[in-house]
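Hi team,

As requested, here is the filled-out complex form for the magnesium ion run. I kept the field names the same as last time so the parser does not choke. Let me know if anything looks off before we queue the next batch.

— J.
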Amino acid sequence: MDCFITATDTGAGKTYVTCALLKALSNLGIGIAALKPIAAGFESYGTERINEDVYRHRASASVQLDPAIANPYAFEAPTAPHLAAALEGRKVELSVIEHAFERAKLAADIVIVEGVGGWCLPINPEQMQADLVRHLRLPVVMVAGIRLGGLNHSLLTARAIEADGCELIGWVANIVDPTYAYAEQTIDSLLPRIPAPLLGRLTWGPEEANRATYNALADATATLSRPRNA
Ligand SMILES: Nc1ncnc2c1ncn2[C@@H]1O[C@H](COP(=O)(O)OP(=O)(O)OP(=O)(O)O)[C@@H](O)[C@H]1O
Ligand SMILES: [Mg+2]
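And here is what came back:
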């Protein structure tokens, strides 16, 4: 099934988890692509200047999308989307992202949509990221950044997703601070308090060719590998 990946904050591991899922599902022979509807900030790769997340997705996905489809909104300024767009005299429109999503769905069996920043983020002067998720009718997977403060951020994010009328289908615990001594206790404290299944526990380590990472995401892979509309 298609899904929207959000997180407890920027830098909590959305792209890390998305790429691991892209590779795991590609290895199963599934045609999988990723969409980054709104990205802020560019990097240089040879002669190409694109957003780092879009570059990383491309390297992991089995289905390659046209850059305009994979990332319909790319802004220069590394800040919140409504601010970055305004600096360029532009505005994020849901219809443009919906068009890209429909095109991506034609090309791939599964489309993973990576959100921007955390959950509660304006995307234009009138709308929030949750409006986009509702518009695309996407179930949500939350990446919980496990570190000091992660308990609060995770519970608030899970509540906000539900309060915004979206469906949280699962969460991934990502230990983003390997020096945090209470990671397992933090995850165990979240388990009974988040009304969705834990789909994987990731420790800190290189994602590239890391079988342990794929194994840790086995439940997430099984959940997403269900056919669209099943
Ligand atoms: N479990 C992990 N082990 C090792 N590195 C990790 C892990 N999780 C995340 N990282 C690294 O931490 C950094 C931030 O993670 P990532 O880019 O996935 O966050 P994000 O939520 O996608 O951020 P953004 O809001 O910028 O899109 C990256 O360099 C990523 O490779
Ligand atoms: Mg990212």
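Two things worth flagging: The chain has a mean pLDDT of 95. The beta strands are 3-7, 32-35, 38-40, 43-45, 48-50, 73-75, 110-114, 140-146, 168-175, 198-202.

Thanks,
J.
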